[in-house]
Amino acid sequence: MVWYWLWIVLSLVLLYYGAEGLVRGSSSLALRLGITPLVVGLTVVAMGTSAPEVLVIVKAALAGKGDLAVGNVIGSNIFNIGAILGLTALIAPMRVQLQVLKFDAPVMLGVCCLTPLLLLDHTIRRWEGALLFSGIILYLAMNVWIARRTATPEVASEFEGGVPQRSRSAALDVLFILGGLGLLVLGARLLTDNAVLLARAFGVTEAVIGLTIVAAGTSVPELAASLVAAVRKESDIAIGNVIGSNIFNVLSILGIGAIASPLVVSQIRMTDIVVMLGFSAALIPILWTGLRISRLEGGVLFAAFLAYMVSLWPK
Predict the structure, then answer these.
(1) CATH at residue 92
(2) For the stretch 261-272, what's the b/e string if a residue is b when 16 or more beta carbons lie within 10 angstroms of its beta carbon?
(3) Is residue 123 a contact partner of residue 253, using CB atoms and an 8 Å limit?
(4) Are 22 and 181 within 8 A, CB to CB?
(5) Domain of residue 30, residue span
(6) Domain count, the chain
(7) pLDDT, tens digit, for every residue of 214-232?
(8) 238-248 exposure pattern, b = at least 16 Cβ within 10 A, e = fewer
């Protein structure tokens, strides 16, 4: 069993550095092609930090492990709000912009509400995956359009600060992209294979492993980005990172996974979906109260997340 944990830790390291390489190379290449840093931050960087989840869910889907794949998405959305926003607010209370409340947060809640509808027949089919993926394209287009119309210089500079600078050459960009993808593929394979073995060793379902270990592991880039943003007092990035990631998880990651292979789910409980919806719904009134997340509210979110984790594992 110790070897399973070691391989999982190694896989998370590979996923982290793979995502870093992919974001660095693709961002630099996009800037070299004349795309503005603001648009790069809203699109390339956002998609790059979700790359670990994409590779893991595609690997799980192709292996016929739908519970692990869908559990990863549901668990990541819970982890993002309960653990990441909770811990980040405990470090420093976070302010929020009205644009996030008026557009992104309602979109996140609406997208999460699609999940129980998709799982009514316990299968997410290819055509449903294609519809989900078309939704992320529409969301990105809307985000870029809104950003270009309404973004203040301060918000633009925050996004620019999160975008890696151009490298010395396009060849180096391509090398970072290919190297990052290679690490992501290898890390995804190690994580899914050993997560399944660990589930069997613990006597728990693949869904539970997906909801906990895999979900937390593939959310490492979002956790790192949000904690750094909190320390730098850039709370807009921390909140936007989490909300954007949750939208990506359902529309892009579930969409790509279902397109790769229909996701058959049998072990995900309605309770898990309700918890995800509960965290998503609770976040909106929390953000409205003073347009910030206080330390107390962060502590409540994190405590609720820990309680849910404890409830998953067999006694």
Answers:
(1) 1.20.1420.30
(2) bbbbbebbeeeb
(3) no
(4) yes
(5) 2-312
(6) 1
(7) 887 777 767 776 776 666 6
(8) bbbbbbbbbbb
